[in-house]
Amino acid sequence: MKKTHNIILSVGLLGLVLCATFTSCKDYLDREPNTTVSATDAFKNFNNYQGFVELIINCIPDKEKCNWCPSWNWGDDEVFNPEADDRMTHQVDLGNFRAWSQTGNWLKTANNNPTDNNAPKNHSLWGHAWFCIRQANMALEHIDEMDGTEEERNVILGQSYFFRAWWHFELMEYFGGLPYINKVLDANNIEKLPRLSFQDCADSCVRDFQRAADLLPINWNDVVVGQNTKDKNQLRPNKITALCYKGKCLLWAGSPLMKNGAQLGAIASGKTYEYDEDYCKKSAETFGEVLQLVEDFETEYSLAKFDFDDIYNHTPTSSAKNKCYSDLFYTINNGARLPGANEAIMRGPSSDWNSSNWNTTKVFGPKVAGLVQHDNVIHQPTANLVEMYGMENGLPIDDPASGFDPEHPFKGRDPRFYHDIVFDGFKYFNGATTDKEAFRYCELFTGGNMRPVANASQTGYFIQKLVPHTCNEIDKSYDYGNQLHTYLSYMRLADVYLMYAEACAAVGGAKYSASTFEKTAEDAINVIRNRCGCGTVAAKYAADRNKFIDEIRRERAVELSFEGFRFNDLQRWLLLTEYPYNTKFSQEFDRLEDLEFFKNNDPRDAKVANYRKEVILTRNFGTKHYWFPFLDADIYLYPEFQQNPGW
Predict the structure, then answer these.
(1) Structural contact between residues 577 and 612, judged by C-beta atoms closer than 8 angstroms
(2) Do 49 and 156 have their domain in common?
(3) Omega into 179 within 30° of 0, i.e. cis?
(4) Could you tell me if residue 349 is inside a domain?
(5) Which ranges in 185-276 belong to alpha helices (H)?
(6) Is 358 exposed, middle or buried (0-12, 13-18, 19+ CB in 10 A)?
């Protein structure tokens, strides 16, 4: 099967490009003998040049499949069971942020091979960032050597500017400001480049993202250079991708952490609501430009449909097939199609789709009684996350007017709750079984048969947003023949609406809108709620800037749950150290219904007693935990490259 990201990559070029592993800051300063690219071959024409650039695309890490049972949710949203204590999620809980380089997560894996397009375990952020930044700089410096049209030159330049900024920005989210590498460095004359502040580094990213936006097409299918690969250009950055990352970079630069610095007590002091309005206004203008193009149908992007005949089994209506909400996260019985539908704005390659079934599909369900294959590593949503899912009327569950009833806690909830969350009484498998019948209807109440901490749920919930519950030993959706393919996009359109809403709210509250887009912040968040059939933001929240920002933050927690964004959100909002965001909870309650109830009724209607939360753990974070530490080998390189405070 032809790989989307490698369509015009010249086979001969692979022998010429860099094959060495890059694992530290020192590595990008070194040039080994085999790293020199022949300008005669690599840069002589568009096809070869594009292949050189597409090696960067090949390096984009796959968060879900970068290792066995990988970890990518490090906020208050997820907890692992004890067998996974060595994974990054638990190490973050312990405050051991140094473990990022040792736990086999998507930030750093043991092996990094930029030319391997069929092994997700060979790609990681730190492992490839410096190589890819150098690759982009080489492409920019050699552009005059290419024999090609102006359009061909423009797309090479645009992609190179984009990726130079993108790899810097992805690192900045975890490590803060960096030296901004905007040229090919000479290993024989090492420049002692000081670290910039986050905002100064972001300014450089923004300039490159804008350059990329000015040079790239809105849709590759509509220009000459994209015709040979028409309808197979989805992984190539375009004008929309570049503008979206420009807007995101500006919003991050304007966020409370970057404006106020790492500190404790941001809720009490109100600093969590203090944004840099200049950055946020620019962000809103940029996102507004994108969203206007989207709503004028001038782009390839649109929101997936939240239309289901059976929401528990993720069965879409006929009109939603291939563009359904579930298709954003996985595809099944559809030729191993890459997830993301028309909503994914930034994705990397996922060539080895079947590695989904050896990794991702087996780390979400109960291992008790052998219900799901392999070891006892299980990704579980915390009660923190589940309580962020409000009511169908749009109100948070702690609002007195919401209608939330602790005796019927699963009734009348946000429709996304029923898509994403496996709760008590949920019919976990559909097929016939002779020895596992006692587990068909989930016992997730306190003391239930799916509550053992060692091999089931310690929180009272499972999640099936990213992987359907039918990935079990009875229904066997994870068997090879079903071609189940999982993948997490780096950015999708719903995120853009929510970032636009946040940027606008930071400047002028719920009624503020950018000059480039007619919708207000309130309108934008309601676009996402209307999509799933959830109630819009209540007037009392829209009337208060800080309460409205809280609603945006809750909306991000729900809409983007388990997609790997929560840690960075809590970080930039100065909430990592604050209660209740530094505490993980389980859900405890007693079941009052008998088994026959669940056989004949919707589990959301079940009555319970003694509904409550209990603490699983508390994270003892200080201000140093707002940034990850660099590797010691990097900070000893030269004095100007300084470690993050406290590490």
Answers:
(1) no
(2) yes
(3) no
(4) no
(5) 198-215, 239-253, 256-260, 266-269
(6) middle
Helix (H, G, I), strand (E, B) or coil at 324: strand
Say whether both 118 and 58 belong to one domain.
Answer: yes
**Do 193 and 231 have their domain in common?**
yes
Q: Are strands 379-381 and 78-80 parallel, antiparallel or unpaired?
A: antiparallel
| 269 domain-assigned | yes
- Residues 560 and 528: their CA atoms lie apart, in Å, by 11
Distances (CA, A) of 80 to 64, 96, 160: 15, 16, 39
Contact 554, 543 (CB under 8 A): no
Say how many C-beta atoms besides its own lie within 10 A of residue 553's C-beta.
17
**153 lies in the same domain as 188:** yes
DSSP 8-state secondary structure symbol assigned to residue 490: S
Strand locations in 361-471 (E): 379-381, 421-422, 462-463
636: which DSSP letter? T
Q: What is the largest CA-CA distance in the chain?
A: 76
Report pLDDT digits (tens) over 624-641.
Answer: 999 999 998 888 888 888
- Quick one: 135 and 224 in the same domain? yes
Q: Which residue has the tokens 């005796």?
A: 407
| Whole-number Å distance between alpha carbons of 347 and 487 | 9
E strand or H helix at 338, and its extent? none
* Consecutive H or E run containing 278: helix 277-295
Q: What is the model's pLDDT at position 50?
A: 94
Find out whether 365 and 357 touch, Cβ atoms under 8 Å: no
What is the DSSP track for 92-132? HHTT-GGGGGTS-BTTB-S---TT-SS-GGG--HHHHHHHH
pLDDT value at residue 4: 31
Task: Give me the CATH number covering residue 138.
Answer: 1.25.40.890
- Global model pTM greater than 0.85: yes
Distances (CA, A) of 34 to 17, 140, 344, 383: 8, 20, 36, 52
CA–CA distance, 75 with 139 (Å, rounded to integer): 37
Asked if residue 471 belongs to a domain, the reply is no
| Ranges of residues in the chain whose predicted pLDDT is under 50 | 1-37
- CB of 235 closer than 8 Å to CB of 5: yes
CA 395, chain centre distance (Å):
25
Of residues 354, 308, 362, the one with CA closest to residue 332? 354
Tokens encoding 289: 């430009």
Structural domain contains residue 184: yes
Q: Evaluate whether 109 touches 24 at the Cβ level (below 8 Å).
A: no
**Do 63 and 124 belong together in one domain?**
yes
Report DSSP state, residue 303.
Answer: P
Q: How far apart are CA 267 and CA 600, in angstroms?
A: 46
Q: Which domain holds residue 559?
A: 263-303+492-580
Domain count, the chain: 2
- Could you count the other beta carbons within 10 Å of the beta carbon of residue 288? 23
> Are 232 and 267 contained in the same domain?
no
Q: What is the pLDDT of residues 230-245, one digit of tens each?
A: 999 999 999 999 999 9
Amino acid symbol at 533: G
**Interacting residues of 361 by C-beta distance below 8 A, sequence separation 6+:** 467, 471, 477, 478, 484, 486
| Tokens standing for residue 180 | 């901004």
- The rounded distance, in Å, linking the Cα atoms of 167 and 159 is 12
Residues 284 and 188 both lie in one domain: no
CATH number of the domain enclosing 560? 1.25.40.900
